[in-house]
Amino acid sequence: MRSSPLNYAGWSVIVLLLLAASCSVTRENDVAAFLAGAERQSESEDQKGEIRRALQDVLKLPPAELRGRRYADYQMRTNAWTVVELLQRYYVPRSRAFLDPETFYDQLRDRRVRTAVERHLMDLETE
Amino acid sequence: MTGKCIHHPGRSAVVQFGTDKYCEKCKSGQEAAAKLVDRHVDPKACFVWYRGGDKWERITGTGCAHWVAHEKGIKKGARIHRCLEGYTYRVPDLIVGRKAVADIATVKVGDIYVNPRKDHCGLVSSVTAVKGKPPRIEIRHCSSRQGKVAKNDFATYFHSKGSFYR
C-alpha cells in the first residue's frame, strides 16, 4: 500500500505551523495588557493634564522621540519621569500586568494599545 | 520560621505577610522594591508585588486607596488587587458594599471620601458644625500632590465635590 503524501509527521508540522501563526496573531502585548481597563488614580487637574499630554504623545510621537520625552512628577517638577514611569505612577492594571521600559516602545503601534490609550484619553476629556 | 516560600516551594520561608510566607530572596526583593515606593505612600513595606523570576516591583498607582484600606482594615477585592498584607489598593474596591451618605450634614469622622471621578480618596478626620451652613469637613488623605499623608479642607482643597461612604 502506498503511504499518504501527508503522513503523521507531515500533519504534525502543519499543525505546529498553524499554532505558531495563531500565537503570533494573538500574542500578548504588555502595554495593552497594562492599560486596557486600568484604573487611573490622580489627585489634581495638573496631574490629569500631564497624563493627557503623555497619552497624546504615545499616539502621535515616533518611539525614538517618545523615549526621550520627560514629564512632570506628582508635584509638577518638570522633566522627572519617562512615559513608562508616568503610567506606572497613575494607573493600576485590571489584571497582573507589568510595563518593561526595554520593550515598551516597540509595542506601541499595536492596535490594542492605541484603543486602550484612546479610551483613557476619552475618560480624561469627559471629566 | 517553618514552611516554604509561596513563590518558590523549594526554598524555606524566612518572612511572613498575612498568611503568605516568603524566602530570603523574596524578602530581599521586597525590601529593594519598597525602597522605590514614592515618599507619600504609607505604609511602604507592603506596597510591592511579585513580578516573577525573582523580581519584585512597587505596586503601581498613587497609593491613595491603599492608605485608606490600611486605616479602615479593608481587605476587599481580588488577591491581585491587594497589597502584600492583603489590603485593597483600588478605589472602587474600597467602597463596595458601603452606603453613600445622602446628606452632607450627617457626615461623620471615619467616613470614606471619594472624589467625583473616583480616582482619589481619603478619610474624614474631623467634622465641625457651622450654624446655618454645611459642616466644615477635614479630609486626611495620602496625597501624591503634597508628597505626604495630609489633612485638607473639603470645601477649599476638594471644592466641596465628591461623595462620602460609610
**Unreliable stretches covering 5 or more consecutive residues of chain A:** none
Count structural domains of chain A: 1
Average pLDDT of chain A: 88
Q: Into which percentage range does the β-strand content of chain B fall?
A: 25-35%
Strand order of the main beta sheet of chain A, please?
A: 1-2
Q: What's the count of strands of chain B?
A: 9
Task: Describe the secondary-structure layout.
The complex is a heterodimer of chains A (127) and B (166).
Chain A (H helix, E strand, L loop, with lengths): L7 H18 L4 H6 L3 E2 L4 H16 L2 H6 L14 H8 E2 L18 H15 L2
Antiparallel strand pairs in A: 1-2
Helix pairs in contact in A: 3-5, 3-6
Chain B lengths: L14 E3 L2 E3 L1 H11 L13 E5 L2 E4 L5 H9 L18 H5 L16 E3 L6 E10 L2 E11 L4 E6 L9 E3 L1
Antiparallel strand pairs in B: 1-2, 3-4, 5-6, 5-9, 6-7, 7-8
Description:
The complex is a heterodimer of chains A (127) and B (166). Chain A has 127 residues and is mainly α. Chain A has one domain (28-125). Chain A has 6 helices and 2 strands; from the N terminus they run ααβαααβα. Chain A has helices at 8-25, 30-35, 45-60, 63-68, 83-90, 111-125, and strands spanning 39-40, 91-92. A two-stranded antiparallel sheet of chain A has the order 1-2. In chain A, helix 3 crosses helix 5 and helix 3 runs antiparallel to helix 6. The longest helix of chain A is centred in the N-terminal third of the chain and has 18 residues, at 8-25. In chain A, 29% of the residues are buried. Chain B folds into 2 domains: 15-92, no CATH class; 97-165. The N and C termini of chain B lie far apart (39 Å). In chain B, strands 8-7-6-5-9 form a 5-stranded antiparallel sheet. A two-stranded antiparallel ribbon of chain B has the order 1-2. Chain B has a two-stranded antiparallel sheet with strand order 3-4. Chain B contains 3 helices and 9 strands. In chain B, a hairpin with a 6-residue loop joins strand 5 (112-114) and strand 6. Chain B is of the alpha+beta class and 166 residues long. Chain B has helices at 24-34, 64-72, 91-95, and strands at 15-17, 20-22, 48-52, 55-58, 112-114, 121-130, 133-143, 148-153, 163-165. Chain A binds chain B through residues 39-44, 46-47, 74-75, 87-93, 95-96, 98, 127, and chain B through 38, 40, 49, 51, 57, 59-65, 80-81, 89-92, 117, 119-120, 143-147.
